[in-house]
Write a structure and sequence with these properties.
163 residues, alpha/beta, Rossmann fold, 5 helices, 18% strand, globular, binds flavin mononucleotide
Length: 163
């Protein structure tokens, strides 16, 4: 295995399992280790209600609530140069727990490639939004938004074209 491939970590956040499925396929495509970002306080169905302007996710995304706390700080980011970072699109960008993730680790010298799942939205300004919060000025690039049905083969071709 070449040195780029052996230094890849997959990190993801997922509440309802869609991004988790894509992340697992990507990890198996690249034979890479995988780490799940978890919120200290898990999201309930009510928390996710985007029609309720007072739901937890609405308040977090509007910056009325502080960034949510991470459940642990055990992501082995130190050992990896390239990180694929996946999440669901919330309100056109990353859920704030992902911003909390990039803020909480020293990401100096790392390349972070974003991927997402969503109802339909693409990544938009997500790389820009995350760069503002990231510690250590890593390179952060928008990768792609994938449907749940994306194949392992498609993910492999895409990942090899972008690393
Ligand atoms: C609070 C909230 C906001 C969302 N905002 C968007 C959005 O702006 N655009 C979009 O296409 N999908 C949006 N979605 C849908 C999710 O991105 C989509 O269901 C995603 O695949 C869920 O991923 P998960 O199962 O990994 O949590 C939103 C979902 C939630 C819960």
């Amino acid at each position: 295995m070449n040195s780029v491939l052996s230094s890849i970590l997959i990190v993801y956040f997922s509440v309802t399992g869609t991004t988790a499925g894509v992340a697992q396929k990507l990890a198996s495509a690249l034979n890479a280790p995988i780490y799940e970002i978890k919120a200290k306080q898990p999201y309930t169905e009510a928390d996710l209600n985007w029609n309720d302007e007072n739901s937890r996710s609405s308040l977090e995304m509007a910056d009325i609530l502080p960034y949510p706390e991470l459940d642990d700080l055990n992501a082995p980011v130190k050992e990896y140069k390239t990180i694929f970072l996946g999440f669901p699109i919330w309100w056109g960008t990353s859920p704030k727990i992902v911003n909390q993730f990039v803020k909480s680790y020293d990401l100096s010298g790392k390349k972070i490639i974003l991927f997402a799942t969503s109802g339909s939205s693409g990544l938009g300004d997500t790389a820009y939004d995350l760069k503002k919060d990231a510690t250590g000025s890593p390179e952060i690039i928008n990768g792609r938004r994938f449907p749940a049905s994306v194949s392992t083969e498609e993910l492999k071709t895409w990942a090899e074209s972008i690393i």
